[in-house]
Fold:
Amino acid sequence: MTELSDMKGSSEIAGSDEAQEGLAEAATGTERKGLIATALVAGAVSLVVALATVGGMTAAGVGKSKIATLDISGIVEIEQMRMTALMMRKETTEDERMRAMSRVKGFGASLSNAITELQASCKCVIVTRNAVIGQPDLDLTEAAKAKLGLEGIDIEQARASAEQALDRRIPNADELSRRAQEMVKR
Structure:
């Protein structure tokens, strides 16, 4: 009854007898129950459709993609360090350097092919390891390294190998001092 008087009060502001009758009619219990029932039915239908859609997608395998990671930057760095070591060694022949340069030119395509093959075989989404927080379903880094001929090589080994090659190639301070003294004597 208070609601009806509130509605009548608001219709008096409008100042129309027709508006009062319309509000009073809308406020009747039968129409209100009909509106509530319609809203409940619409909500239930929406819920059933949503659940059926999600259920169908899950049954079809949509939304269940595994996520695999790949340390692409680590693989690229290993290859860079290997090529640096090879190119900097004094004993590397010109032919070996030319083959290394060919390998460098084709490495991007080889890496791309390896990723495509891995993705097809695992039927998963592959993201770079740096983009994942937490534990991925699968890490494909070692499998990719194997496809690229880098199996068993970790980044620390590759860095050490490159540093050794550079150390042998670039003389240290003692060696430079000795060479300078020899030049002065001449």
